[in-house]
Amino acid sequence: MKLATDISKPFTSEDWNDDRLSQIRRTCALTLLELYRKANAEHIGSSLSCLEILIDLYFRRMKKEDLLILSKGHAATALYTVLAEVGRISRFELSTYYLDRTLLGAHPSCSKKIYDIPFGTGYVDLSSRGSNRPRCLIAQTVKGHGVSYMENKMKWHYNPMSEEQYEIAVSETRTNRA
């Protein structure tokens, strides 16, 4: 993947001083919390742990023709949310999350139907996009980042939120705790 800027420098909180990216993060976090709550789905912590990385990649570093392969399948909702925010999938498509016959499940499908969506999981095409030099980003993240009761708590890998927990998460996200 050819990136617009160098990813070799450490990713720090200073990268998030940009008001626009902070607002995008807040919008994406609120959207994914709502998707998880409506679906009563698990893996919330996984999505929150990599949201900033995906936003940074899609809004600052990747070009439109670049391909992202997310090997963290349980964080698919974060990716779906960012793809909708950047305009690579429709809001309507995003609204089908976790519904019967959707392409946007909690665990991404590897069916041929999903190949048209500009990301992939479970397969790697090293010859794609005119480059034989794929890039790999490995990050140590905080599960549940941005929601105090979820941060570094393993149960947010496999528990859905109650309505009360959802309200707390939304309140913390709106007040920009992350």
How many helices? The count is: 5
Helix proportion of residues, in percent? Answer: 25-40%
Number of domains: 1
Strand content: under 5%
Which CATH class is shown? Alpha Beta
Low-confidence stretches: 1-11, 120-128
Secondary-structure class: mainly alpha
Would you count the extended β strands for me?
Answer: 2
Work out the radius of gyration. Answer: 16 Å
Question: Which overall shape is indicated by the principal axes computed on the Cα atoms?
Answer: globular
- First-residue to last-residue Cα separation: 29 Å
- The CATH superfamily appears as Thiamin diphosphate (ThDP)-binding fold, Pyr/PP domains
What is the overall pLDDT average? 80
CATH architecture: 3-Layer(aba) Sandwich
Biggest sheet: strands, sense, closure?
Answer: 2 strands, parallel
Biggest sheet strand line-up: 1-2
CATH topology call? Rossmann fold
Instruction: Note the run of SSEs as H and E.
Output: HHEHHEH
Features:
5 helices; mainly alpha; Rossmann fold; 178 residues
Give a structural overview:
This protein is mostly helical and 178 residues long. The chain has a single domain (16-174), classed as Thiamin diphosphate (ThDP)-binding fold, Pyr/PP domains (Rossmann fold, 3-Layer(aba) Sandwich), CATH 3.40.50.970. The chain is 38% helix and 2% strand. It is built from 5 helices and 2 strands. The chain has helices at 19-39, 44-61, 76-86, 91-95, 163-174, and strands at residues 68-69, 119-120. Strands 1-2 form a two-stranded parallel ribbon. Helix 1 crosses helix 3, helix 1 (19-39) runs antiparallel to helix 5 (163-174) and helix 2 (44-61) runs parallel beside helix 3. The longest helix is centred in the first third of the chain and has 21 residues, at 19-39. It is globular and about 45 Å long. Mean pLDDT is 80; it is low at 1-11 and 120-128.
